[in-house]
Amino acid sequence: MDVAGKVAIVTGGGGGIGGALARALVEAGAKVVVTDLDAPSAQQVADSLGESAVAIAGDASSDEHIDATVRLAEKEFGPVDMYFANAGIGRGGGLDTDESLWDLVLDVNLRSHVRAARRLVPEWIERGSGYFVSTASAAGLLTQIGNVPYSVTKHASVGFAEWLNITHGDDGVRVSCLCPMGVDTKLLRPEAEEVNPDQQLMQKAVETAGAVLTTDEVAAIVLEAVAEERFLILPHPEVLDMYRQKGADYDRWLRGMRRYQRSLKG
Questions:
Q1: 10 three-class SS
Q2: Nearest CA to 133 among 30, 239, 207?
């Protein structure tokens, strides 16, 4: 798909990968609605992109907000062609993670994708075209040491993207799934007061597994993959080798991950 002239929505667009995606899309000729829970950040990104972008604040997992975002896009630019389900949350730890936090992470990392697809895919099927880009994580293909809600929901978001691709790919709906390792964002490196031992372990695991990329590097890779309509987007190519090793001998992979975890704790 050529993104020039397309209308896109980017959730979590107030910074990080989302902000970089919004910039890259506008530079490539798209019109963008930037949405984020942080209203000032979303507005700042949109303002920096001129007339090609507008902002709206709200919860990416809310049906009401998703509908309001789509209506804003239609009003300002026209029918939505692309949806970047990028908003994510990295909070959580081990088995002591409470139910309310589980619900929050499930909503933001998974149900937001389901609800957005429910809103847009029927229209795309009627038009014969549309593109859904899911930001998951290498954790969704492998796992995430130190954070069970993040690991589980990212696995689920990969699974949903796969299902969407298989079920509606023949209807003209294109689907890609972004699965990076370390990216220099607040999700990887939160404010100091938010860091607990589980977060420290998660951060150490990610930073020692491979290079930490900039958000602009990731956004450029995403647009290249979209142009090729490629499902799996891997800014860290080594993730594919890790995934193959996991599938080739699951028990060996699990033993290796336990050794890796021990080394991180040591």
A1: strand
A2: 30
Instruction: Count CA within 13 A, CB hemisphere, residue 27.
Output: 11
Three-class secondary structure of residue 58 per DSSP: coil
Domain boundaries, the chain: 7-240
User: Helices (DSSP H) in the chain: which residue ranges?
Assistant: 16-27, 39-48, 63-76, 99-106, 112-127, 148-168, 197-209, 215-228, 238-248, 250-265
**CA angle (58 as vertex; 126, 23 as ends), nearest 5:** 75
Between these two residues, 204 and 76, which has the higher pLDDT value?
Answer: 76
The third-level CATH classification (topology) of the domain covering 7-240 is Rossmann fold (3.40.50)
pTM attached to this predicted model: 0.92
User: Residue 126 in 3-state DSSP?
Assistant: helix
CA 52/CA 241 separation, integer angstroms = 39
Is there a contact between 144 and 101 (Cβ–Cβ < 8 Å)? no
Q: What is the distance between the alpha carbons of residues 236 and 231, in angstroms, rounded to a whole number?
A: 15
- Give per-residue pLDDT as tens, 27-43: 999 999 999 999 999 99
C-alpha torsion 102→34→3→77, nearest 10: 130
Three-state secondary structure string covering 209-247: HCCCECHHHHHHHHHHHHHHCCCEECCCCHHHHHHHHHH
Q: Please list, residue by residue across 66-83, b when 16 or more beta carbons sit within 10 angstroms of its beta carbon and e when fewer do.
A: beebbebbeeebeebbbb
pLDDT digits (tens, 9 = 90+) for 199-222: 666 776 666 667 889 999 999 999
CA distance 60 to 140: 20
**What does DSSP assign to residue 6?**
-
**Cα-based distances in Å from 114 to 132, 239, 259:** 11, 25, 35
